[in-house]
Amino acid sequence: MSGTSHRSGGLRPALPAGHYVWLPGRGRSFVRELAGPAGAPVVMLMHGWSATADLNWFASFEPLARHFRVVALDHRGHGRGLRSTEPFRLEDCADDAAALASALDIDRCVPVGYSMGGPIAQLLWRRHPGLVDGLVLCATSSHFSEQPGERVVFGVAAGLSAVGTVVPLRPFAGAALAGWCRWQKLLRRPWWGFDEISRHDWAQVVDAARELGRFDSREWISDVSVPTAVLVTEDDEVVPTDRQLAFAATIPGAIVRRVPGGHGACTMVPHRFVPELVDACLEVIGRGTVGGAAA
């Protein structure tokens, strides 16, 4: 599907069909699917922190579906993703993705992770190597807490997470959303994304920020044994570009593609990001086909 359609709050892109999938012992997760060509390899799209599959990938769905079967899920606590009373864990998100693959009869896939989706994709490879044919990692890193300012941000997230176990965060999130909506009306620029973020479980989203601050794959990321591409976002104000390049250099044989546009390149400059994403996925799949599937 392409184009746009009207929805409450503004102009919303037309999106592929979505549905809920029950993951036994875990809960239900919201998924968008595009069948792609017959027998096409599967790419599983994993969105970033405080986003949803639609927010990260709306411009990428159709171009990817020309070559692949596309599956995109909302991670737990985000959008219409799985709801849990347990603390947010990136490992649980990776296991959710593996459970989703099983529920959809997917034997092999290429996880495509953006920002927070990058650690989830890395963990999916580490925890479920038999499922992963390759990796495409975008605007991401092996670690996220290094500079003093970052440590402060993730420390605040950890503090808010602890507070959220005693004081519900949802009222604060509601007040923040109301403020954003007033700002939107003043600008007279309605944005469909407010509908997406209004669905978040904000306690889980704050918890996710704390988990990102703890994540560190530097001890094992060099063991990655499947074809991998790293899409580096230039002038990135969230995950520094130099850190992304250093991350790519630690992965044996990684393909590196640079995309101008900052951390929001997937949504702000899709005309630059999407062609690079499609080519990276094709190259990763091609390497896997030539070299044989990794065990």
Give the structure's gist in a few sentences.
This protein has a domain at 13-142 and 221-291: 3-Layer(aba) Sandwich (Rossmann fold).
Helix content: 40-55%
Specify the number of helices: 11
- The low-confidence parts are 1-10, 148-176, 290-295
What is the alpha-carbon Rg in Å? 18 Å
Description:
There is one protein chain. By secondary structure, the protein is of the alpha/beta class. The protein has a domain at 13-142 and 221-291: Alpha/Beta hydrolase fold, catalytic domain (Rossmann fold). Helices cover 42% and strands 18% of the residues. It contains 11 helices and 10 strands. It has helices at 53-57, 61-65, 90-103, 117-127, 148-164, 170-187, 193-197, 202-214, 241-249, 265-268, 270-291; strands at residues 4-7, 10-13, 18-23, 27-34, 42-46, 69-73, 110-114, 135-138, 228-234, 255-260. The strands form 2 sheets. It has an 8-stranded mixed beta sheet, with helices on both faces. A two-stranded antiparallel sheet has the order 1-2. The longest helix has 22 residues, at 270-291. The radius of gyration is 18 Å and the shape is globular. The protein starts with a strand and ends with a helix.
